[in-house]
Amino acid sequence: MNALNEPVFEVPYYQPTGQECELFEQAWKQHLPMLIKGPTGCGKTRFVAHMAARLKLPLFTVSCHDDLTAADLIGRHLITAGSTVWCDGPLTQAVRTGGICYLDEVVEARKDTTVVLHPLTDDRRILPIERTGEVLHAPDSFMLVVSYNPGYQHVLKTLKPSTRQRFVAMSFDFPPPEVEIGVVQQESGVSAEVAQRLVGLATSLRRLQGYDLEESVSTRLLVYAAKLMAAGMPPRMACLAALVEPLSDESDTIAALQSIVDTQF
Ligand code: ADP
């Protein structure tokens, strides 16, 4: 809160790679829900946090999983000291406060859960709450944002076309090297030279073919490696811990990744 008792929104650092900030802002102004696709650790969550703060909107983030029910999003009755009270879920809170509701990895949620989003994602912009009989009308500032990683090739884990066609969508990827170097430096405090070497290493690791890697080195992992180095860890150990071990349990793959690290550090 500031002196006028208004909430202060600290804008988290986000380095754009294109016109994603402008697109997001226009989508918000036009009351359009947004779908962000991209690999894990490429900056989706940071981007949404950045935009929410820039637009001075409260942000309600939900990490979706396969046990997530509609009640987890909307709310439920809770029994406290003998009485029953209604407790809003994060989606309902976002609608009531006119904020952003961000559903991370939305494809993990059960299909019957994502269906509750439908009346919010067309021009009705309503949230019916069956349990209380309320029908909430989303204020103009409310926005629904969902993300998922299309790289996980789970046949069963995609959005139903009837759900995905309700969103404007954009694809994220790891930032281009010149941007990623700046991000690694800014997030960890390492020198430009170390950041450059780490990003060079990531480029080589991402090119690695022929191993059973579901995902490659993310910007998040690069930042982890850089943080360990900035704290004084030997570079090879930092890379092993942050860039190699998290990616695989296979000893052959670990050895191949480590041999690439050895060429750089
Ligand atoms: P995702 O939600 O895509 O899994 P995150 O948004 O959590 O990934 O990003 C992981 C980390 O990578 C962030 O915490 C941040 O340190 C860094 N990062 C990635 N891209 C950017 C960017 N464009 N600007 C600033 N930080 C970034």
From TrEMBL:
Per UniProt, which keywords does this protein have? ATP-binding, Nucleotide-binding
Signal is among the record's keywords: no
Q: Which residues form the ATPase dynein-related AAA domain?
A: 34-167
Q: Which domain of life is it from?
A: Bacteria
A Gene Ontology molecular-function term?
ATP hydrolysis activity
Cited Pfam families: AAA_5, CbbQ_C
- CbbQ/NirQ/NorQ C-terminal domain residues are 180-263
Q: Which InterPro entries does this chain map to?
A: ATPase_dyneun-rel_AAA, CbbQ/NirQ/NorQ/GpvN, CbbQ_C, P-loop_NTPase
Checking PANTHER family in the record gives:
DENITRIFICATION REGULATORY PROTEIN NIRQ, MOXR FAMILY PROTEIN
Protein family: Belongs to the CbbQ/NirQ/NorQ/GpvN family.
State what protein this is by name. Answer: Nitric oxide reductase NorQ protein
